[in-house]
Request: fold
Amino acid sequence: MKNWKLYIWRVLEGIAIIAAIVGLVLQYQSLQEQQILGAWQLITTKASGNSGKIQALEFLNSKGVPLVGVDLSKAYLWSVNLNGANLRGANFTGAALIRANFEGAVLKNTKFKGAVLFQSHFEYAFFTKANFSHTDLEGAHFDNLLDLNAEMFVCEMFLFFKKFYEAVGI
Reply:
């Protein structure tokens, strides 16, 4: 009779341990969802400067969350690391993206109009129909670009250098 009670006790103890583990996993998933939601709220709130947007963008990118269509116009994102990010249709119009890392990023239909991209990295990025009109590309790295809409990009680069040479009187 004693063995039977001990067996029941051990089974109940095992069930309690499994229930506790399941509860912890669900709580962790909920915490992750709350962090992702909080990061999205921070990114979509209009505020001057960076106001935590760099950390929020890097966090979402590290979790593999697509940043499709995000509006970061006029944002100040010094040294943001968006390596491999999916930024399809994102808007960086007038943004300060100095020393930003877009290596391997998907930048299809992304707007960089009037942005400052000083010393930013775009190696292995996908650029189909990206808009770089009136951007500051001084020192930017564009090695090994993938899926480049060359005609549009070359045209934009020509206009950029033409304005530069006119400004300095060459």
Observations:
- The helical segments are 2-44, 53-62, 150-168.
- The CA atoms of residues 27 and 33 lie 10 Å apart.
